[in-house]
Amino acid sequence: MLEASLESITDDVQEALRSEVRQIIESEGLTQAFIAREAGLAPGTFTPWLGGTYKGDNVDKARAVQRWLETRQARGRTAATLPAAPKFVATLTATNILDVLAYAQTAPDFGVIVGGAGIGKTTAIEEYARRASNVFVVTAEPVLASPNNMLSALADVVTVAERRSVYLSRAISAKLRGTAGLIVIDEGQHLSSAALDQLRTIHDKAQIGVVVAGNESVFSRLQGGERNSQFAQLYSRVGMRMSQPKARAKDICALLEAWKITDARVVSMLKLVAAKPGALRQMTKVIRLATMLAAGDGADALSEQHVRRAWNQLASTPLDAVA
User: Fold this and answer.
1) Would you state the pLDDT for residue 229?
2) What is the sign, positive or negative, of the torsion defined by CA atoms of 158, 164, 169, 171?
3) Partners of 51 in the beta sheet?
4) Most CB within 10 Å of its CB: which of 16, 195, 274, 313?
């Protein structure tokens, strides 16, 4: 990339920048609107600058484009040292999650998946949605706790235009009825009990499958202290449930095999990582960072030192501490 200082953006430098951007557009198929967004410029400003017809401060725009090119080049260097994560790994846990999703969609029924952080719930849900038709996934967050907010997010995924809260449930049910579809709520612990009950209503009216995945609090609401008459209708709808608090040893080994990590000492350390909060997700982060550190050292393979350095950058507790 052109090495021009920000203080010396002459007309020739600008033309060189424009030429470099045009080459990127042609070779990678990027749009001008995409580049403008990444460069922090309005499309209506970037397009005339690229064409050499902008009437405003061209030097200022050229500096923004130069920063974008330099940032892009830096990202490329970093990306080259990061290993690509293995494609979907059919661990025992993932297979069990897929079974719950498939059952709920086929029956159709109401399913609950409860699991600790990082055991692979989201990855399995994404894989199922990729394979199956009419799967509508909503990732819950605190702001979606209320029934109306949850329905609004679901309407976006289902592509329902209705936005009046009193008619949302009816419109969603009508759109989904007869589709043999499946609603999946990931991070379901963020939903209120009333929002969960609203999902029960859609399940009944649309006659489609519903699966709620989340941490232990999701299921405890259904089977614990809140299991009273208010929740009897919802609890009775749960046809299949799965509960797994942490990653299985076989899951950890399957993922390490997919990463092609065989050094016994490195495997042992990564198993320690996977036994901690965050499980497989945290282990994957450590592997990616450790691989980057190894590449920076010119090493051909991961070592214990790389894993430990990666862990120290990502966590605040010693790796050897009891999980």
Assistant:
1) 54
2) negative
3) none
4) 274
